[in-house]
Please model this.
Amino acid sequence: MLHDDLKSVLLTEEEIRTRVAELAAMMDSACAAAEQPPLMIGVLKGSFMFIADLIRALKTECAVDFMAVSSYGAKSETSGQVRILKDIGENIEGRDVIVIEDILDSGITLRYILDLLNARRPKSVKLCALLDKPARRKVPVEAQFIGFSIPDEFVVGYGLDYAEKYRGLPYIGVLKPSVYME
Ligand code: 5GP
Ligand code: MG
Model:
């Protein structure tokens, strides 16, 4: 059943599950030659559901950590200012790292995170984003794993929120503009 605040479903549970399995298989291949388990870094909060499903679909042994950043507040547009709210606890020097993010939009958040992690001299840093809005990019960011390219609309569900709502929806839908223009 479609939530009243949504105008449409963009990605169903089934479509997400299928694509997550494909991403996991791509990661398994990419990690096959690695000597030690990669560290998956989930970017909170939006990626929590994605990373949980992704590592269950992964055959590769991996370590998991999280970082939390904030650039949005309760708005639907990025402020351009990134703040670290929680850093990872692991030392990543010499390690293979994969950053797991919900959505790549302007790229400002991920550019900041990738630069920060690269400065700690990991062996490699790859990026996996479930969603990508290429039309919105303001700074260049390269993602090795992309789930879906989507149009420039504000989406919620499957971990993604608007003002902390809708994270628990098992699908991804487009929010009615009236909800955030009130
Ligand atoms: P960027 O720095 O690339 O502009 O922003 C990335 C972050 O903005 C994402 O991690 C996500 O938290 C948020 N974001 C961007 N687009 C959307 C969207 O359509 N829906 C939701 N819920 N968050 C978004
Ligand atoms: Mg986010």
Summary: Residues 13-31 form the longest helix (19 residues). The two ends are 24 Å apart (CA to CA).
